[in-house]
Amino acid sequence: MDQTAYLQKQKEEEAGYEARCKRCGACCGASGDDPCVRLRKDNSGKYFCSVYDTRIGKQFTISGKEFSCVPIRYLRPQLPFKDCAYYKK
Ligand code: SF4
Ligand code: SF4
Description:
The chain is α+β, with helices and mostly antiparallel strands and about 90 residues long. It has one domain. The protein contains one helix and four strands, in the order H-E-E-E-E. The strands form two sheets. A two-stranded antiparallel ribbon has the order 1-2. Strands 3-4 form a two-stranded antiparallel ribbon. It is globular. The structure holds iron/sulfur cluster (2 copies). One iron/sulfur cluster (SF4) binds near residues 21, 26 and 27.
């Protein structure tokens, strides 16, 4: 496989991985009383991150608590959200 084909495959795999997300918002605190301040909900009721491309790193909850946003894969295999599309036992 040449480099172009490899990069294309990587892009497709990443898109497929991202597409699995149900946008339930659980990993961003949607079901609790102190979600991330960057969390938004669209007209269909699904959640999204308002700073997705630059989300990794220091963030705050709506009450002002600091935390670190990390890629969802870093939370595996101990994902605390059992309904998460990426949850694995
Ligand atoms: S910054 Fe991180 S925790 Fe906050 S809404 Fe975006 S993805 Fe979720
Ligand atoms: S908990 Fe899982 S399925 Fe729900 S928004 Fe987060 S990554 Fe997506």
